[in-house]
From TrEMBL:
InterPro entries for the chain: Beta-barrel_OMP, OMP/PagP_B-barrel
Keywords on record: Signal
Lineage, uppermost ranks: Bacteria, Pseudomonadati, Balneolota, Balneolia, Balneolales
Species the sequence originates in: Fodinibius salipaludis
Pfam family for this entry, one: OMP_b-brl
Protein name (record): Outer membrane protein beta-barrel domain-containing protein
Entry-linked SUPFAM superfamilies: OMPA-like (SSF56925)
Membrane-traversing stretches: none
Domain Outer membrane protein beta-barrel: start-end pairs: 14-189
Signal peptide span: 1-21
């Protein structure tokens, strides 16, 4: 839970920059393609603890309402103890999302997000036999967020997504393991 409190702290640190940018007349994003780093927190429903993750994102604004996003991330290990078997998962997701912005003002852009992802999953089993295995799983996400322009070429974004990710029953994962969960993300977009 303490880890989860760090994201609002990060938002609190960067909020003065966003407020300062909003008082500036040139705070609107004029260019349409951006790239930048992102970090976040993911907690699966069945995981013992959540973990921070990092990655990179790119966004293309297709007008004032529509946008698309692509991202690559690394989710560090989450531990599971199910049926006497202990294992850890690591994810490397590659996701694509559609963004629908609400044109509230030039300096404040809330949005809805929906997308798909391919999740390269690494399993490290502990116990009687230590083993490492991996698989690809597909999932989707739904959520909402806000983009706050800093100036005409940079913006902060914060969002929440609910991840729907259930592995194939024929694959490596332990039966009845639920990887669905909450994802909180903060990113910095540098528009070209």
């Amino acid at each position: 839970m303490r880890k989860l409190l760090l994201l609002p702290l990060i938002a609190f640190i960067f909020a003065p920059m966003a407020v300062e940018a909003q008082t500036s007349s040139d705070a609107t994003i004029k260019n349409t393609l951006g790239i930048g780093p992102r970090l976040g927190y993911y907690k699966a429903n069945d995981a013992d603890n959540g973990n921070f993750y990092f990655g990179a994102q790119t966004r293309a604004r297709l007008g004032s309402v529509l946008g698309v996003e692509g991202s690559v991330e690394y989710y560090a290990g989450q531990e599971y103890n199910i049926g006497g078997q202990s294992f850890e998962t690591k994810f490397v997701p590659v996701t694509a999302s559609a963004l629908m912005f609400l044109p509230v003002s030039k300096n404040f852009a809330p949005y809805g997000v929906a997308g798909l992802g391919a999740y390269y999953t690494i399993y490290e089993f502990e116990g009687v036999v230590d083993d490492v295995d991996n698989e690809f799983n597909f999932g989707y996400h739904l959520g909402f967020g806000v983009e706050l322009p800093i100036n005409e070429n940079a913006a902060l974004n914060f969002d929440y997504r609910y991840l729907f990710l259930n592995p194939n029953e024929n694959e490596v994962s332990t039966d009845n393991t639920n990887y669905n969960g909450n994802v909180f993300t903060a990113g910095l977009m540098l528009y070209l």
